[in-house]
Amino acid sequence: MTRFSMKDPFVLRLYKIRNVKKYDEFLELLEEVLDEAAERIYSSLNKNSVVSTYKALCESAETNIKDIDELKKHIILLQKKLEDDISCRIVDHLDAKGFVSSHDPNNKGHVDILVQNQSKKFKWIGEAKLYDGNRYHQKGLYQLINDYSTGGKFESGGVLIYLNKTQYSVKDVMQSWDTHLKELAKDPKNRLENFTSEFDEHTSSIFYSQHIHHKSGDPYRIRHCCLDIRIDF
């Protein structure tokens, strides 16, 4: 019979995740596991094969599909497939560590990543997109803010940027995104009242923002994260 010991750090963390009582603790544990998931994706050989396949399929489509509108539709489908693949890898890792997580569930719309504790009292909603400039990611941000979130006490969000192309560094991408958000926040119509942001002290690939959620009137926290999945760069 297998015996489990709380002295084992893996067992201890699993216990904490499954029995978390405070939302701050839920977020702390979640972000630790999200960092692990990102590291697994960075170092995974499967990442290379998935991105290589995506790249090859795009090149094939550009060669063989002559109709411009059909080509655009095909590329969008390929992009969605790559986005889904990376998001599913993150969800699988979160599940394995004890969270209740899912990809594309219906939470006032089809969100990319939904993470909850065992009682489903605590919630984190992640909106993920392949990198395509600030205006494109702005759409994802407002899907999160306007469509999927309520701004409730036990809820926060995440914007995940999957960097599969561009010559910009991760730091450049994230600083540009942060600056873009600060510019948006100057206009009250953009629903980013009292916007503040702060970069993670350990990495330039993550920063945290907070603003007053237009629905609840309470502070809403968002974790902005860039995952570099580029190959041959």
Distance between the termini: 49 Å
Order of helices and strands: HHHHEEEHEHEEE
Helix-strand category: alpha/beta
Oligomeric grouping of the chains = single chain
- Fraction in beta strands: 15-25%
| Rg calculated over all Cα atoms | 19 Å
Organism: Acinetobacter populi
Protein name: Restriction endonuclease
Features:
7-stranded mixed β-sheet, 233 residues, single chain, globular, alpha/beta, Restriction endonuclease
Give a structural overview.
30% of the residues are buried. It is globular and about 60 Å long. The chain has one domain. It has a 7-stranded mixed beta sheet with strand order 1-2-3-4-7-6-5, sandwiched between helices. It has 6 helices and 7 strands. The mean pLDDT is 90. α3 runs antiparallel to α4. The longest helix is centred in the middle third of the chain and has 29 residues, at 68-96. β5 (193-199) and β6 (206-212) form a beta hairpin. By secondary structure, the chain is of the alpha/beta class.
